[in-house]
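Supplementary Note 3. Input sequence used for the single-chain structure prediction.
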Amino acid sequence: MATAVIVTVIALRFLLPLLIPRFPLPAILACLVLDAADQTIFQAVTDDPLAGYQSYDKALDVYYLAIAYCATMRNWRDPVAFGIARFLFIYRLVGVVVFELTQQRWVLLVFPNTFEYFFIDYEAIAVWWNPRRLRPAAVVSLALAIWAFVKLPQEWWVHVAQLDVTDFIDDHRWVSYVVAGVAIAVAATLVPMRRVLPPPDHHFTLAAERRMPEFQVERRKVSLRDVVLWEKVLILSLICVIFANILPGIEAGSVGIAVGTAVLVIANAFVSEWWYRRGRTWQNATQSFVTMLVINVVIVIVDSLVGPDANDIPTAANLGFVVLLALFIALFDRMRATRGPDDRRLPTRKSIELWRRRRAQARETGLPNPPARRPASLE
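The predicted structure, written as C-alpha cells, is reproduced below.
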C-alpha cells in the first residue's frame, strides 16, 4: 500500500506539469499543492526518514518549473514579462545547483523561487485581461514584491527554520484562525477594488489558446552564434546537473554532466537542422519528443560502443536521463518556435524601451492594444 501511494504521488509530479503549457494556472497550482503535500503524504504511509527528500523535491520542482518556463515562450507575448521570467528561472537554477553541490540550506534563501509565484500571478491576470496592458514598472514591481514579501519569508521558513506548515498548525491552533481572518480581510479589500478594475479583455478562460493572439510556428536557423542556442545549453546543463545529483547510477561529476549535456544539446540542434533541410519536420511536440529521444538514445549507444568506456551498456539511470533531456529539448524548441525567427532575446532594459516606443506609436495612431484571438492549432 505504501509503495503504491509513493509511486502514485511521484507519477503525478511527473505528469501534472505536462498540462502547464495548455492550462497554465490550474496546472501549476496543482503542482504547487502536490509539492506542498507530498512529504506529509509520505510520512503518513511510511516510517522511512526520507533522507533524500530534499534533493528529490528540488529536482521535481525544477522539472515542473522548466516546463512552466517553456510555456512562457509560447504564452507570454510581453517581452518585459518574458525577460523577467527568464532571469528569475535561470537565477533559481543556479541556486539549486549550488545547493546540490554544497548542501547548505541558506543558499535556497539567497536564490528564492520567485519565478513560480510570478508565473502564477501573471497567469491569474491573463484569465480575464491581456497582460500586455501592464506597464513595465508594474511588471517589475510585481516580481520585486513577490521576491521580498512572499518568497524570502517562505524560503526561510522551509529551508532555514525547517518548519512544516501542517505540524506548526497542529501545535498552534490559533494560526488557523489568523489565516482565516487574513483571508476574510483580503477578500473584503479586493471586492471594492472590482469597481476600479478595467473591463475584461475576454471571457474568463483557463486555456491559454483561447486568449492568445495568432502566431505561426517557425523554426530558427541553427548557428553557434545564436544566443537562443546557448540559452538552451545553459538551462539544460543546469537542469541535468541537478538531476544527476539525485539519480542513482550517475557516476560522472557535475562538470562532466554539464559538458556532456552541452554536447548533446548542440548535436541535437544540428541533427534537427540537417533533417529539416531535407524536408523533414514535426507537426507537434509529441513527434518532436520522440525524434529527440531516438537521436539521443542513438548518440548514447554509439558513445557506449566507441567511447573510452566501450562495451558498457547504458544503465537505466542513463536512459532515464536521456528521456528527460529529450523532453526538455522538444518542449524548448517547440515553444520557442512560436516566437518566430526574429526574436533576439532582448534584455529587459531594451524591452522596456521597445514597449515605450510602441505605446507612443499606439497613442499617435489612436489604436488600442491588439485584442486576444484564438491562435491556429499547434496540433
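The radius of gyration is 22 Å. Residues 370-379 have pLDDT under 50 and may be disordered.
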